[in-house]
Amino acid sequence: MPMDAPAGFRCPDLPGPETFTDAQAAVERLILLYDRAIDFLSAEFSGALRGKLPAQRARAHYPEIRITTTTHAQADSRLAFGHVAAPGTYATTITRPDLFRHYLEQQIGLLMENHAVPVTVGMSDTPMPIHFAVANDPSIVVPQEGAAEFTLRDFFDVPDLSTTSDDIVNGTARPAPDGTEPLAPFTAQRVDYSLARLSHYTATDPEHFQNHVLFTNYQFYVSEFEAYARKMLDDPQSGYTAFVSTGNATITAGDQGLPATEKQPQMPAYHLKRGDGSGITLVNIGVGPSNAKTATDHIAVLRPHAWIMVGHCAGLRNTQQLGDFVLAHAYLREDRVLDADLPSWVPIPALAEIQIALEHAVEVETQLEGYDLKRVMRTGTVASFDNRNWELRDQSGPVQRLSQSRAIALDMESATIAANGFRFRVPYGTLLCVSDKPLHGELKLPGMASDFYKTQVSRHLMIGIRAIETLRDMPLERIHSRKLRSFSETAFL
Asked: Which of 200, 332, 387, 430 could form a disulfide with 328 if both were Cys (CB 3.0 to 4.6 A apart)?
């Protein structure tokens, strides 16, 4: 017989809103509020699983940051972030302040510096779903609907899609009823949702992700990345401290072993870490725009400083050779997975900082420069299709569009990754390697592929790594430029 739902709410005893003029102190208060809310819900839920149901519905809320400005005076307009556009009240809910400590201190500090006003830290009115509250406690598992001896929704809050959308980044969010505008690109519940998905899809915890991400569509790059990581771990001058593989398996020395992965996740991630988070994460997203969107949808909440696609493509020009590089400076979007969030008529611009870093990396690795670089690299439009076997249909339509767009390469992921970078304000770039030429009779066959992989994967990966090392040394305000920001933006990156 189902238990009757309790009346009213039982909430944790927490301090009220308080203003802060020190960013570190503000983040410490966020951590305190969040941890106490988590502890309260975990204790209540553990008791319920043991048969001790709450006398009242158990509820805790996410903490929030709130700022109010009353002046029209402009902040430093050279910065693309760290300031609000107009007088008003701005707020955002916060989750995992421990994980985002550096980011929060940085963004709050800029707000205080640019507007000379304090921030207020307190509890929001957004309930914290029990699934997210206990997500980091391996001893607690939320049973599926009907498996527990009580009705979960009668006693605890569950995820609510109304606060888990991309309305803010898509530019469709509306002010709260009291006129409050969003302060950050994602709500706490949207972040929690993606953190949970990241663990599921990549088989590594979110805290291992680094600020610079390489995406690839072939497993061959993973072996090369691990070999490079081991070499770096044996070099005390490299600055790298650990390598994390699937299942959170971690090594800190090049000769340490890694356990074999029993079950490969859908999009395995590998992390070459630095103490300040400025290392490199490699994600094998597999094939297709749907995977590319899924990966970037969730990694975006970690606010990386750049992501770059280093995959394989079909060369569309007869003058290209297998193994040549393609540096994308435009995208023909026929992937379709983002059309509802970012219409295909929205231009996706090339970002000079990323382009220069990639071109310089190619020069270093190939020892070619200037006009000679054209022997091995083309700059042009990359087309991304959602149909891997487009050659098997009537080719007149696709080939005509490829010609009209001046495309020089074709794949299934690059335009999606770039477009989602544009949508989420994450700097993006693409450097592909030609692995076949379907319009000119060179198909991707097993023998050809093997020779190609042996000679080109290592060089291609090193180019991506060198580009990231260049970007890592750039000032934050340079790489996060105004090109990715609209005329109505959140203050937080």
From this structure: 430
